[in-house]
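Example 3.2
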Amino acid sequence: FSTDTVYVESIGVHAWIDMLRMASCGHFVISNSTYSLWAALLSVSAGSRVSPNYWFANVKTSDLDLLGAEWREVDAF
């Protein structure tokens, strides 16, 4: 990653502040978590969005109809 990379971590005050900070990011690499998913969905950024290709052990993320066509799915380790 470049030196321009910023990681958003909880500041522990209110969950809505953490969500607002996450949603203000330009790009998203999310886990199979609804919290990170909502941050990416609420963002107005046109940046890239990446998710794991399996949301659950045997359920492909694309089968859940959660993400738009611009999302890229990757293999989770």
